[in-house]
Design goal:
The chain is mainly β. The chain has a single domain, classed as Mitochondrial Matrix Protein, Chain A, CATH 3.10.280.10. Helices cover about 0% and strands about 45% of the residues. It has no helices and six strands. It has a six-stranded antiparallel sheet, with no helix packed on it.
């Protein structure tokens, strides 16, 4: 286990929130829309696990990948960036665009 595992995380950057969704065991990070600074609504989440993450496929057996899902909304369009992170950084897996309701930002089926 890494030495910094017992160290509390730093506070979120200005404008961002960080929380733990106990129902799904996700770390959830978010930022609201701010028209003055032209920022968009962002929600990112990743599962929390004190174990080796799942392997993406049989060929990538030597690297542990942590899934990270990012949802970005602007002008009624939601862009879903599906990424995987490892010791080397973030790697894009898939990109989707939706025009569906903002309820997609919920991390659980019963979230309001």
């Amino acid at each position: 286990m890494r030495r910094e595992a017992g160290v509390p995380p730093p506070p979120p950057m200005e404008g961002w929130t960080a929380c733990h969704d106990a129902a799904t065991n996700l770390a959830v990070f978010g930022r609201s829309t701010d028209a003055a600074t032209r920022t968009v609504h962002v929600v990112a989440h990743s599962p929390i696990a004190m174990a080796n993450p799942p392997k993406m496929n049989a060929l990538l057996y030597c690297v542990d990948w942590f899934p990270v899902e990012v949802l970005v909304a602007r002008n009624g369009v939601i862009v879903h960036l599906s990424m995987a992170s490892n010791e080397g950084g973030m790697h894009m897996r898939n990109v989707r665009a939706y025009t569906e309701a903002l309820k997609m930002f919920d991390t659980t089926d019963g979230a309001v």
